[in-house]
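Researcher: Sequence recovery benchmark, item below. Answer with residues only.
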C-alpha cells in the first residue's frame, strides 16, 4: 500500500462526487487542471477542490497532466456561500457546481495574482427591506450608486433576463462599469466578467439568479429588485435555491449592506422585520392598495360563458375594449399568470381583428440576448403585447394605456400555500400600474366573486399580508416552520402514485421529529407530481433533522422501485 500525495478535483459530470488524483504539481483550491478521465482516459479540465493530502491506496490513482490556471478561479466568499447552499438546500457540492456554473469558466486562465485583500469590513452592515411605491424604483438606485464613489463591487439582482435588460437600459446611461450576467450572457463575456471580479476591479454586476454565485472579492452593496418575485426561486435545477435568500447570506459573508426592494413585500421578508432581522424602510410612507375603482373594470369569465359572451378564454366585452383602444391608436397589454393560455389569447385577438400587430412572450429560456435587445428597441411598434408573469415587470418602456389581467384567481386553486400571496401581489401590480399615466385596467376573474376582489382593492396591503400570515401560522407553514418538499414527477399517473405512496410509507415513521402533510398528486407544467411536505421546527435540532432527511432520501432513491424517478428535495418551496 503506497502513501500518495493527492488532491480532489471537480469534473463536469452528472455525479455527486469529487475525483481523486495524484499530484506532484503545485496547485491551489480553485486551480484549473487537465486530467485523464474515464476508461478511455479522455483529457478534460477540472477544478481543484481540496488542499493536497496523503492517501494510502492499493488501487492505481491517475495523475494530473498539467495546470491550466494556477491562480484560483474561485474566491473564498464564493466558496463559503456554496458550502452554505449545500448544507441548507441539501444538495451535494459537486451537483451544485455542475448545476450553477457553465463550462466556460474552465477556460479562465489567470495570468497574474488576483487581488484577494478585502478592505475593512463594515461591522454595522444592515439587511434592509425597502418599500418603494414609486412609478419606477430603478432611478432611486442610481443616485445612491453614484454617490458611493468608494465602491469596488456592487451586485444588483433582478428576477429574470427581461427585467435585467430593462434595468440595464435605464442604469447604464448614468452608471459606468456595469455588466449584465445572466443566462443570456455569452461564454466569452462570462469569462471577462469572472476575471474582472477576481482581480477586484471596480464593477457593477446586474444579473439574475446565478449572479449571486459569482466570485466576488469585496462586495460593498447588494440590491434585490422586487424581492417578492417568486422567480427568484429556482424550480428546475438540481439546486432549488432562492437567490434573494442567498443574497442575504452573501451580504453576511461580505459584511455589506443589502436592500431588498419591493412595492409589495414578501410575507417572509415582512416576518423578518417583525423578528428584527431586517430593518424596515417605507419610502412610500403608506403602502395602500386604494385606488379609483372607476379605472378598473371587473368581468367574470364564467358568467360571460353562460351568456355566450366569450371567445376562447376572453370575454367579448374585453375584446371590444381592446378594439376601441386600437382604433384610437393606443396600445394594450394582456397579462396572464399562465403561459399555457397565451396562444389561445392570441388566437382570440386575431379572430377579433386581423390587423393587430401582436407580440407574444411566453418562453424566455430560448431567447437570446440579441433578441431581448431587439425586443426593447422595437417594443412600441406593436399594438398588443401578451405576456406572463415573467415579463410584465420588464415592460415599462412599452407606451400602453390599457392593462388586462386574465384569470388571476385561478392561482388560488393550485395546491401551493403561497397562492394567496401571489394573487394579492398580482392584483397590487395591476393597481400600481393604473395609478400612473392615466392607465386603465381590466381584470377578468375565472370564477371568483367580483365583490371579493373589490374588497382586496380597497384594503391595505399590510393588512392583507397580516391576515395571510395568521393563516400560515395556523396551519404551520413557512415562515413559522421550516418547510421541505419531497417531490416525484412523471407523465404516468399510476406509476407516480404507486411510488409516491411507497415514499410516504417509508418516511412517515422515520421522520417523527416533524409534521408530514401528504399533498398527493398535483399537475404542473405538463407533469404529474407527487408532493409531500415536511414541517420542521425552525430552531430546535434543525440541522440534525435536515441531515437525517437528506441521508434517508438517499437510501430511498437507491431502492429499485425508484429507478429513473429520483426524489427531489426542495427546501423552502
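Model:
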Amino acid at each position: 500500500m503506497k502513501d500518495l500525495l493527492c488532491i480532489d478535483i471537480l469534473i463536469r459530470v452528472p455525479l455527486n462526487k469529487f475525483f481523486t488524483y495524484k499530484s506532484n504539481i503545485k496547485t491551489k483550491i480553485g486551480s484549473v487542471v487537465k486530467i485523464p478521465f474515464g476508461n478511455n482516459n479522455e483529457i478534460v479540465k477540472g477544478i481543484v477542490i481540496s488542499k493536497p493530502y496523503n492517501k494510502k491506496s492499493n488501487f492505481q490513482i491517475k495523475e494530473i497532466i498539467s495546470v491550466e490556471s494556477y491562480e484560483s478561479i474561485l474566491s473564498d466568499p464564493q466558496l463559503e456561500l456554496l458550502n452554505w447552499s449545500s448544507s441548507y438546500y441539501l444538495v451535494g457540492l459537486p451537483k451544485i457546481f455542475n448545476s450553477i456554473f457553465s463550462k466556460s469558466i474552465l477556460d479562465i486562465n489567470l495570468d497574474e495574482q488576483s487581488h484577494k485583500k478585502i478592505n475593512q469590513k463594515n461591522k454595522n452592515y444592515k439587511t434592509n427591506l425597502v418599500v418603494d411605491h414609486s412609478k419606477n424604483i430603478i432611478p432611486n438606485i442610481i443616485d445612491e450608486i453614484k454617490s458611493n464613489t468608494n465602491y469596488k463591487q456592487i451586485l444588483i439582482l433582478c428576477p429574470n433576463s427581461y427585467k435585467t435588460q430593462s434595468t440595464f437600459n435605464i442604469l447604464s446611461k448614468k452608471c459606468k462599469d456595469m455588466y449584465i450576467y445572466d443566462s443570456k450572457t455569452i461564454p466569452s463575456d462570462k469569462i471577462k466578467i469572472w476575471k474582472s471580479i477576481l482581480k477586484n476591479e471596480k464593477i457593477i454586476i446586474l444579473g439574475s439568479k446565478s449572479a449571486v454565485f459569482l466570485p466576488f472579492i469585496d462586495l460593498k452593496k447588494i440590491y434585490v429588485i422586487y424581492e417578492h418575485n417568486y422567480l427568484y426561486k429556482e424550480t428546475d435545477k438540481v439546486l432549488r435555491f432562492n437567490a434573494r435568500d442567498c443574497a442575504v447570506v452573501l451580504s453576511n459573508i461580505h459584511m455589506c449592506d443589502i436592500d431588498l426592494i419591493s412595492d409589495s413585500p414578501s410575507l417572509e421578508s415582512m416576518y423578518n422585520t417583525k423578528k428584527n432581522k431586517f430593518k424596515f424602510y417605507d419610502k412610500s410612507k403608506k403602502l395602500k392598495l386604494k385606488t379609483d375603482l372607476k379605472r378598473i373594470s371587473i368581468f367574470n369569465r364564467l358568467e360571460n360563458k353562460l351568456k355566450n359572451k366569450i371567445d376562447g378564454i376572453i370575454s367579448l366585452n374585453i375584446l371590444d375594449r381592446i378594439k376601441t383602444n386600437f382604433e384610437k391608436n393606443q396600445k394594450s397589454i394582456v397579462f396572464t399568470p399562465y403561459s399555457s393560455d397565451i396562444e389561445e389569447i392570441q388566437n382570440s385577438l386575431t379572430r377579433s381583428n386581423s390587423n393587430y400587430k401582436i407580440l407574444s412572450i411566453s418562453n424566455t429560456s430560448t431567447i437570446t440576448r440579441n433578441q431581448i435587445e431587439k425586443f426593447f428597441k422595437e417594443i412600441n411598434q406593436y399594438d398588443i403585447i401578451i405576456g406572463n408573469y415573467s415579463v410584465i415587470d420588464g415592460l415599462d418602456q412599452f407606451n400602453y394605456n390599457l392593462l388586462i389581467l386574465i384569470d388571476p384567481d385561478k392561482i388560488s386553486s393550485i395546491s401551493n400555500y403561497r397562492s394567496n400571496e401571489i394573487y394579492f401581489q398580482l392584483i397590487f401590480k395591476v393597481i400600481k400600474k393604473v395609478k400612473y399615466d392615466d392607465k386603465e385596467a381590466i381584470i377578468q376573474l375565472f370564477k371568483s366573486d367580483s365583490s371579493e376582489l373589490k374588497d382586496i382593492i380597497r384594503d391595505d396591503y399590510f393588512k392583507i399580508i397580516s391576515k395571510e400570515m395568521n393563516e400560515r401560522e395556523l396551519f404551520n407553514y413557512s415562515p413559522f416552520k421550516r418547510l421541505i418538499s419531497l417531490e416525484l414527477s412523471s407523465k404516468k399517473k399510476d406509476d407516480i402514485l404507486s411510488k409516491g405512496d411507497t415514499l410516504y410509507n417509508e418516511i412517515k415513521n422515520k421522520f417523527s421529529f416533524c409534521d408530514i402533510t401528504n399533498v398527493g398528486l398535483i399537475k404542473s407544467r405538463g407533469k404529474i407530481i407527487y408532493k409531500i411536505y415536511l414541517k420542521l421546527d425552525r430552531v430546535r435540532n434543525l440541522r440534525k433533522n435536515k441531515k437525517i432527511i437528506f441521508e434517508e432520501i438517499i437510501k430511498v432513491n437507491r431502492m429499485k422501485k425508484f429507478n429513473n424517478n429520483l426524489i427531489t428535495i426542495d427546501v423552502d418551496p
